[in-house]
Design a protein that fits this description.
This is DASH complex subunit DAD3. Its main location: nucleus. The protein is mainly α. The protein has two helices and no strands. The termini are far apart.
């Protein structure tokens, strides 16, 4: 990554869905805003790491970067698991709706 990479601080119009007829609830918009904030923080981290990579590295910096790498990997894994869980739950709900499940026992005796 180049050191002179500049990231825009402007909001992503694709993530700003509130008030549109897209069916996004306030909670979903809040989640999208948090993802946007996380993306902005990751870009800032990337810029800081790019500037650090240009100079000499000390043992203390290397240990700090290893710790940071482990934490970022843990957060990434937890986020992936959360998203997978949500997608799986949505698939199960849609599967139940597709099978005619309406929460009532329609068996004949």
């Amino acid at each position: 990554m180049e050191e002179n990479t500049v990231y825009s601080d402007s909001r992503n119009p694709l993530l700003d869905l509130a008030g549109q007829a897209s069916g996004v609830s306030p909670l979903e918009q809040e989640v999208l805003d948090e993802y946007e904030r996380l993306a902005r923080n990751m870009k800032e981290l990337s810029s800081a790491l790019a500037s650090l990579s240009g100079g000499p590295i000390t043992l203390e910096m290397a240990e700090g970067l290893r710790l940071l790498e482990r934490k970022v990997a843990s957060v990434y894994t937890l986020m992936k698991a959360s998203v997978y869980s949500i997608v799986l739950q949505q698939g199960q709900i849609e599967g139940m709706e597709g099978d005619g499940f309406d929460g009532e026992d329609n068996t004949q005796r």
